[in-house]
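Why does residue order matter? Because the sequence determines the fold. Keep that principle in mind as you read this record.
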Amino acid sequence: MTTNAQRTLLMTTAFALSTGSMVQAQAVDMDALIAAAKAEGTLTTIALPHDWCNYGAVIESFKAKYGLVVNELNPNAGSGDEIEAIKANKDNTGPQAPDVIDVGLSFGPAAKAEGLIQPYKVSTWDSIPDSTKDAEGYWYGDYYGVLAMAVNKDVVTDASPTSFADLKDPKYANMVAIPGDPRTGNSSMMSLYAAGTAMGGKGGAETAAAGIAYLKELKASGNFVDVGGSAQNFAQGTTPVMMDWDYNILAMRDRLAGNPPMDVVIPSDGVIAGVYVQAISAYAPHPNAAKLWMEYLYSDEGQLGWLSGYCHPIRFNDMVERGVIPADMMAKLPPAEGYAKAIFPTLDEQSAAKTVVADTWATEMGAN
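Structure:
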């Protein structure tokens, strides 16, 4: 059995990010910020499903702590939808204009380049690894996980697949799904990327092309289900083998509570990790509420909120070193051996992969 100390060491090894050359955080007058946020009264979020990273409890804790209203837009939107929501509401200060976004890593620099987000360095800035944040404070990593498989054991009654290669077997006919469209959703994009890695892709465009070829092969053989993987579809047996981030699958396992029984598998041939980032809209109607939200998310309290939902918070290593993560919470984390093999695609690799998917997904997969 993996001990907590071993688990910590393996996770730290898997996510070996430099903490040198830190940019100093700006001083934050929390009393003034809280007062200004309360004067605005509302925070507008987008694309935060309550079962994603324990966001439901995180939002409720924020509301209880500061007494703000949280206006939640389209919880099931993807990263691309969040960016489009900012663009569509540049001149709108009403309830459809998001104040903050939570997007895949590659969307942060792109949003900055388009002038869609504004800089803000939280008070815990120095403990966020340099490689997961913009030096000027426009975007910053919040949590990370790895792509995993959920296997419905009511449908898959023999041994669960352990790799992407296994899923080519005819016995998985009409079973295999990814979360949605990889052109608009980061978890779907990285599911494709993990498959491409398993098929021998060495990074970037090559891996994306290999991932599309793999899914095209599964579709041609009848194994791929062209329906978005979701808890409902999984439980009903529509998508009995589905890809998603490990934290989403582990949270789904807890909610389903054995109905149906399920396995959670980190595929042996394609271990891909992904970082999500936070940013504040350049057009945020409630900029102070947005900054207070960031302060909460990057506090120890906020980071532990995510960890309780199986997401590895970006300040995980710092919190381990300071001994502020409860032992019972550490014990609930999955075995860490698979994490030691995790590959973190660079921004350039992700950008190249997204270009390939945008250009070829529709023609290769017959998608709209």
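The chain has a mean pLDDT of 90.
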